[in-house]
Amino acid sequence: MTLKRLISFALIIMSLALWSCEKKGPDTSDKARLKGPRTTEKIRILTTIAPLYCFAKNIAGDTALVENLLPSGAGPHDFSLSPLDAKKVSEAHVLVINGVGLEAWLDKIIDSPGQRRADDGKLIVADTSIGIEIINKDPHIWLSLRNAIVQVRNIRDALIKADPLNRDIYSANTEAYIIRLNNLDREISDEIATWTKKEFVAYHSAFGYFARDYGLQQAAVIQEIPETEPSPRHIASVVETIKSKGIKSIFTETQALHKIITSLATDLGLKVYSLDTLEKGSPGREWYEERMRSNLAVLGEALK
Ligand SMILES: [Zn+2]
User: Fold this and answer.
1) Cα 153 to middle of ligand 1, angstroms
2) Ligand 1 center–CA 26 separation, angstroms
3) Ligand 1 centroid to 276 CA: how many Å?
4) What is the Å distance from ligand 1's center to 33 Cα?
5) pLDDT of residue 119
6) How many angstroms is it from 161 CA to the middle of ligand 1?
7) How far apart are CA 183 and CA 145, in angstroms?
8) What percentage of the chain has pLDDT greater than the value 70?
9) Cβ of 135: how many Cβ atoms within 10 Å?
10) Nearest by Cα to 162 from 90, 97, 106, 95
11) For residue 279, which of 35, 41, 50 has the smallest C-alpha distance?
12) What are 173-217's pLDDT values in tens digits?
């Protein structure tokens, strides 16, 4: 073999080697770049109560998996955590809670925001009450549109922290949802401004924040402590309030006609209406707005 042929043979071998290296190396073609960053699995968001599920679903859309911990028929005041529930918490990336002591049943498994998850990652606990002015330790913050907007922003921040790649989606969805909530707030405010009566009696003290937002007054509540029978002395003071303020209507909750409400209504000639505290339900994306509008209509019948 002449030197010239030897050199050209070597060149062929080298170019063949280079070609094969290129083939085995990273694919930098446009097609590969279009795939974007390696698509990881969707993050799992676990919410505690129905309104938070609805908020999270509106923020996440289909970008993350959203699940509610409480089954549709269970209320948060007397809930107790099963081993399956604890497993769900351990598998979540973000746990969205109401806060203000509503989820005391989570205390034994959640002791710090840096809770370790089953796969050794950190669980992000989003306490949606952060930044909300709490009145009398009342946990029913979601029944105020203005509080709900703060809760929605807190959920957005937690989702972005857990899944920064989808920051733009979460931010855009949040802004669109907040526009809807602000519109609803104005709609309720304009409507209530036309009502002549401002005082009402509720079954349990859920509507304090709602009343504050729109200049209504929760004059009395039947159940001082949720899911606890009121004392005869408390009922006597409620009767006194109803009589002294000339209140003509009383609000019960979620279709359940409580015995005390029935007897008070009969004794005092009150009309009974049913309000939804939004503590139970299996929401779709419009659920929160629909239920708030429905409560407005019920209140309006009594207070207009
Ligand atoms: Zn409640």
Assistant:
1) 23
2) 57
3) 10
4) 51
5) 57
6) 30
7) 10
8) 82
9) 14
10) 95
11) 50
12) 999 999 999 999 999 999 999 999 999 998 888 899 999 999 999
Q: List the shell of residues around ion ligand 1, using CB closer than 5 Å.
A: 206, 226
Distance 70 CA to ligand 1 centre (A): 14
The token duo for 120 is 């050794």
35: pLDDT strictly greater than 50: no
232-268 pLDDT, tens digit per residue, is 999 999 999 999 999 999 998 765 557 888 889 999 9
CA of 250 to the centre of ligand 1 (A): 17
In the reported structure, the alpha carbon of residue 277 is separated from the centroid of ligand 1 by a whole-number distance in angstroms of: 7
**Token pair recorded at residue 96:** 């969205």
Summary mean pLDDT of the chain: 86
Say how many Å lie between the CA of residue 106 and the centre of ligand 1. Answer: 17
Neighbour tally for 248: CB within 10 Å: 15
Residues 205, 208: Cα–Cα separation, whole Å: 7
What separation in Å is there between the alpha carbon of 103 and the centre of ligand 1?
12
CA of 138 to the centre of ligand 1 (A): 9
CA of 301 to the centre of ligand 1 (A): 23
What tokens were used for 170?
């979460």
Which domains does the chain show, CATH number per domain? 44-186 (3.40.50.1980), 189-303 (3.40.50.1980)
Q: How many angstroms separate the alpha carbon of residue 226 from the centre of ligand 1?
A: 6
